[in-house]
Specification:
mainly beta, 5-stranded antiparallel β-sheet
Length: 147
Amino acid sequence: MYPAGVLTGDHLLDTLLVTQWIEPIWKMLWSNKALLAVLWELYPNHPNLLPAYLDGPRELTRYVKKPKLAREGANITLVGETTVETGGDYGEEGFVYQALAPVPTFEGNYAVIGSWLVDGEACGMGVRESDGPITTNLSRFVPHMFR
């Protein structure tokens, strides 16, 4: 049907009928929040990291409790001046406790920027915005691609 190894967006829907899409297992490593605690242990006080622990909040008084394998704001607890929680199906795998870095608000909207690098070069960015301090799968999202 198509040359081997060639798949473009134009033909993606055609292949869904005959192909089962499976994400590679190595992607789980980068989405596991335990990596935050490992990075903090390897590089304590690095300016691009926040303190993070697997065994509880330790000395942290303002922190985020995140399930190790959760996605899109599920089962998050923000502990600060007030406590904010989201529901979900995650947490059985354990939690990571990370220092709270409050998200700035703009006219009552909380905006978070996610960026993607490939081989050290910026290639994309996503802006996710919500009405509360925890972004979820219902938050507004605008993707950007760089060339």
